[in-house]
Structures are given as C-alpha cells and as structure tokens.
C-alpha cells in the first residue's frame, strides 16, 4: 500500500517533472541509451539533450516546491503529561506516538498492538511492544499486576505433553514454528538432545 509520503512525492514529480514521469519520454531515453551502447552514438550529445531541459526543470522545482510537511495523524491516545491528543510519528523502528506539544512536552509512547489471544497467566489482554533496541515482545496489559512477558508470540493452543501454552517461535531467519513455552517440557528437552547428537 503506498504511503502518504509516496503519494505526495509522486504528485510533486508529476507537477514539476512532466518529462521524467512521461512513459513515452523515458522509453525514448532508454532507446537513445541503447544506441549509445550498440551504435556508438555520442553519449555526451544524448546527455546534453536530456540535461538542458532537466536542469531548467530542476531550477523551477527548486523555486516552486515548498518544504513539504506531512499532515499529522492524530490518535485518540491522550498525553498524560499535558492532555493533548498524541500524534503518529515515524521513527527508526517504525511508527510511534509523540506529544504534539514537542518540545515543551517530550512525551512519547510506543503504539500497542493487541493480540486476540488472552494472557496465559491472567486471561487479560496481551499487547505487542517494542524494546528500546527495536525488538518486538509480548506483554500483559495488566502489568504490573500480571508479569506475563514473552519474546515469542503466545498461542491459544496448549501443549499436549505438559499443558503449558504454546508459542510461535522464530529464528532470526526462517519460518515461524510452534513450540511449547515451558523450557522444562519434554518436547523441548528432546529437541535439545536431538540438536546435540
Ligand atoms: Zn504532552
Ligand atoms: Zn496477564
Ligand atoms: Zn509442553
């Protein structure tokens, strides 16, 4: 799905660089470059023909295009420090919520995603969070009353061997797989000895 920024950039390109977003023009350019390769056409002439008008477009765009400010997506999460509705921002690890009254108020919050699976410890809501390093983990929304926390996504399914909840585990690369959340469980012990032999 195209992002809002992508849409804005495309629009700016179409308005200010009519040539380079024109398919007939870019196809013609490709042909001319093929001629350079195959027929030994003078590349400097080809580039000069392109760059002359392009340079003018660039100058024009530099004058016409104002600094683009993305409209802020306002959330229904209230900043507990100043009472403002927090807004969505893009950070290094994806979207997060920030107080619109920055820099007076520096409050930020991660965006929490709720799982449909109930908390294995208290039956409450499990949310996906991100650690400071950007890794996702799962925790109970009733924290600190409930201390359920897991790197692996909890599943509703229960282990046939020990009855503990199952998780969707993942190696750094590769497909997710199901395993028992209980490290003492025989199913996990077996895998460990398998790996050793
Ligand atoms: Zn605030
Ligand atoms: Zn819980
Ligand atoms: Zn088990």
Helix content: 25-40%
Q: Helix- and strand-based class?
A: alpha+beta
Give the biggest sheet: 4 strands, antiparallel
The helix count comes to 4
> Strands across the major sheet, in which order?
1-2-3-4
Mean pLDDT: 87
Distance between the first and last residues' Cα:
47 Å
The distinct bound ligands, ions and cofactors come out as: zinc ion
Count of individual beta strands: 11
What is the total domain count? 4
Q: What portion of residues belong to β-strands?
A: 25-35%
Order of helices and strands: HHHEEEEEEEEEEEH
- Mind telling me the C-alpha Rg? 27 Å
Looking at the structure, what is the overall shape? Answer: elongated
**Runs with pLDDT <50, length 5+?**
none
Walk me through what this model shows:
- The structure is a single chain.
- The chain has 197 residues and is of the alpha+beta class.
- The protein has four domains: 4-64; 74-110, no CATH class; 115-149; 152-197, no CATH class.
- Helices cover 32% and strands 27% of the residues.
- It is built from four helices and eleven strands, in the order αααβββββββββββα.
- It has helices at residues 4-16, 23-39, 43-64, 186-196, and strands at residues 74-78, 85-91, 94-98, 108-110, 113-118, 125-130, 136-140, 149-150, 153-158, 165-169, 177-180.
- The strands form three sheets. It has a four-stranded antiparallel beta sheet with strand order 1-2-3-4, with no helix packed on it.
- A hairpin with an 8-residue loop joins β7 (136-140) and β8 (149-150).
- The two termini are 47 Å apart.
- The structure holds zinc ion (3 copies).
